[in-house]
Amino acid sequence: MAEKYRERAAVRAQEQIAAGIFSMWLEAGEIARAARPGQFISIYSNDSGRLLPRPISICETDPERGLLRIVYRVAGKGTEEFSQAQAGDAFDILGPLGNGFPTERCPQGKKAFLIGGGIGIPPMVELSKSLAGEVQVIAGYRDELFLTEELSANGTLYLATEDGSAGTKGNVLDCIRGNGLSADVIYACGPTPMLRAVKAYAQEQGIECWLSLEERMACGIGACLACVCRSKEIDEHSQVHNKRICKEGPVFRAEDVEL
Q1: Are 4 and 39 in contact, with CB atoms under 8 Å apart?
Q2: Is there a shared CATH topology between the 5-97 domain and the 215-259 domain?
């Protein structure tokens, strides 16, 4: 089992990068050095009335400086609290959690699609830095863009927007087809309808596909079963056709889960 660390992490910097979207750098040396692309942290409120942590994916890390970055959407009181934090404030965090993306599946000579939709885009930043093969990032937005500079730094970036304000008008698959793109392996993170469509596309094309599932998690360590998804295999913990997203996931081979 991979090592997990609980740290009192000071906020190094925070900024709003789009409507309701915030970027926060945290001083968390142990977690930053141990984290792999696609893993997440649980960040705890400083309000004793909010017992459960908020799971947030790791956008990128700077192990040498002991920093990690999260990019998150304000969606409730917990994330609203985080968005008010300033440099020098601190939060208890636990991580790295989850299994992360299998970067070895895209060695030199192979091509990958890194498909992110909405708040599923941030994990693609660290993943883009970690693959030996050719990186093609396909990022889908409703309208306002974020993280485009980071995503284009380590590969070719293709954009899809619902309103057509940037890149291809439509979704990420419209973007792939419209640009005549191909890949040997797919890594994807985003809302369930997008992942369902990506899974179907991968099956049609015969492409290996790995999905990071977005679900609301509570404990973040696999004990509470609040974040299960349907799976083909029987889970040894619950003895039913479920997988715990926070424990066995959040990344799964596409054919191993039902969406």
Answers
A1: no
A2: no
Model confidence band, residue 119 (pLDDT cutoffs 50, 70, 90): very high
**pLDDT tens profile 166-196:** 999 999 999 999 999 999 999 999 999 999 9
Spell out the CATH class of 215-259. mainly beta
* Domain at 5-97: CATH code: 2.40.30.10
Cβ–Cβ < 8 Å for 58, 96 = yes
Q: What is the mean predicted confidence (pLDDT) over 223-241?
A: 68
Beta strands in the chain (DSSP E): 5-18, 21-27, 40-43, 54-62, 67-73, 90-97, 111-117, 134-141, 156-161, 168-169, 185-190, 208-213, 228-231, 242-244, 251-253, 257-258
Structure tokens at 37: 């692309």
Question: Cis ω on the peptide bond leading into residue 250 (within 30° of 0)?
Answer: yes
Which residues, at least 6 apart from 103, have a Cβ–Cβ distance to it below 8 Å?
Answer: 36, 37, 127, 130, 131, 132
* In the chain, where the domains are located: 5-97, 103-213, 215-259
What pLDDT, on the 0 to 100 scale, is given for residue 234? 62
**Tokens encoding 185:** 């392996």
Mean pLDDT of 158-162: 97
How many beta carbons lie within 10 A of that of residue 143, not counting itself?
Answer: 12
CATH code, residues 103-213: 3.40.50.80
Mean pLDDT across 74-103 = 96
